[in-house]
Specification:
Elements (H helix, E strand, L loop, with lengths): L7 E10 L5 E9 L4 E4 L2 H5 L6 E3 L5 E3 L2 H11 L25 E3 L2
Antiparallel strand pairs: 1-2, 2-3, 3-4, 5-6
């Protein structure tokens, strides 16, 4: 029997890098319709509070390496002067001990 679109396929707390430039713990939910919801925490999700963000990752790319993510960003936003700084710091420092997942959406 097919799943209903609103059924939860996966849920867990993760560290999320947000628009303020800070890492924050969020509760994410992947539904059967493949939408990814980002909630403040599990309690707000359980109470039925609407998601802070809802993403439809259709056509997106999931990367698990900072090097691969950097290469994708360089390809999408090439340096017009062709100046490649080998010692430039990463755009975002990933907290140590964590498994990074980069989601790039078109």
């Amino acid at each position: 029997e097919p799943l209903r679109p609103e059924e939860v396929l996966y849920q867990d707390s993760v560290l999320h890098y947000d628009d303020t430039g800070k890492w924050k713990e969020r509760f994410v939910v992947m539904r059967a319709n493949h939408s990814l919801e980002c909630h403040d925490n599990q309690e707000s999700f359980s109470k039925g509070v609407p998601a802070r963000q809802r993403l439809l990752p259709t056509g997106g790319v999931v990367l698990t390496s900072e090097d691969k993510y950097s290469a994708l960003v360089d390809k999408a936003f090439p340096d017009p002067k062709c100046l490649k700084e080998e010692t430039s710091p990463p755009m975002v420092v990933v907290p140590s001990g964590q498994f990074p997942v980069y989601l790039r959406l078109p």
